């Protein structure tokens, strides 16, 4: 699955290529999160135009709304969202944390009260695999017998709230004990500093809602941090977000224009999401 092409002599960072059914993916790679079949604010075609060759779908949310059967009848998740590239679906287990007040853990699995109403859902390991198979994802891990090879390792994900030093030590320890020839996927990591450090520690794949979520608050990601474009200082700033960025937002629009849009127009959220995803991938 992973071809390692170069390794750093001073850290555990490496460059490689994931060989997947819908095309090869260079690593390290950041994967945008398409919870319900799209990254919020962008179409699949726009994601592809930004160079994205793999994104995520969420098993729990897709399984409850619109429902895995509808997605299956649409030709799987690829057909449903008109996405020709690679997809990765998660287990739905993160919702144990994000929907903590709506969930109850038992030996059988996790029982959820759906956030949009309806009957309770028991998400067991078997049910998770059933939903993912209905979504039609070739990249979904299939059940394996004892001794069978596994496609990769997951050094994490972080629990959230731990201090950086402890988090990085945990990632370092995990990555050191995972096979060299397998991809190492660190879930839920999207801050720039964390990405740089965790690549140096040997991780290959990352995902996070951070670039899309922060855009909805008027924040644009740049190499030196972020710009809070709602602030008055940008009202007469006619520069692009980042002069070195090739995304269509930076090529066409000024900080002043985006500042004005953020006061009254949701188009700004789309333009900032496009820039943030372009920056991150």
From TrEMBL:
Annotated GO CC locations: cytosol
Pfam families: TGT
Record flagged with keyword Transferase: yes
Gene Ontology MF term list: tRNA-guanosine(34) queuine transglycosylase activity
Region of interest: Disordered: 133-158
First and last residue of the signal peptide: none
Record keywords, A-Z: Transferase, Zinc
Sequence ranges assigned to domain tRNA-guanine(15) transglycosylase-like in this UniProt record: 12-136, 158-280
GO biological process: tRNA modification
InterPro entries: TGT-like_sf, tRNA_ribo_trans-like
Protein name per the record: TGT ribosyltransferase
Organism in which the protein naturally occurs: Gymnorhina tibicen
Gene expressing this chain: Qtrt1
């Amino acid at each position: 699955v992973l071809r390692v092409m170069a390794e750093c002599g001073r850290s555990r960072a490496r460059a490689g290529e994931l060989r997947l059914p819908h095309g090869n993916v260079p690593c390290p790679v950041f994967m945008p999160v398409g919870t319900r079949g799209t990254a919020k604010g962008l179409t699949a075609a726009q994601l592809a135009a930004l160079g994205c060759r793999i994104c995520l779908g969420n098993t729990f949310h897709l399984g409850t709304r619109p429902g895995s059967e509808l997605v299956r009848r649409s030709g799987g998740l690829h057909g449903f969202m008109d996405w020709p590239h690679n997809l990765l679906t998660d287990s739905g287990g993160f919702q144990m944390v994000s929907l903590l007040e709506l969930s109850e853990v038992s030996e059988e699995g996790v029982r959820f009260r759906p956030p949009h109403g309806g009957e309770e859902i028991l998400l067991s390991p078997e049910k998770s695999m059933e939903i993912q198979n209905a979504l039609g994802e070739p990249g979904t891990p299939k059940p394996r017998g004892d001794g069978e090879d596994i496609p990769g390792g997951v050094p994490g994900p972080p629990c959230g709230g731990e201090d950086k030093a402890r988090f990085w030590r945990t990632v370092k320890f995990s990555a050191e004990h995972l096979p060299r020839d397998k991809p190492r996927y660190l879930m839920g990591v999207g801050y720039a500093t964390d990405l740089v450090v965790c690549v140096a520690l040997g991780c290959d794949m990352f995902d996070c809602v951070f670039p899309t979520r922060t855009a909805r608050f008027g924040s644009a990601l740049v190499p030196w941090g972020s710009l809070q474009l709602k602030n008055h200082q940008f009202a007469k700033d006619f520069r692009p977000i980042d002069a070195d960025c090739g995304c269509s937002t930076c090529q066409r629009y000024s900080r002043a224009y985006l500042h004005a849009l953020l006061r009254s127009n949701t188009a700004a959220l789309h333009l900032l999401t496009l820039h943030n995803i372009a920056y991150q991938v």
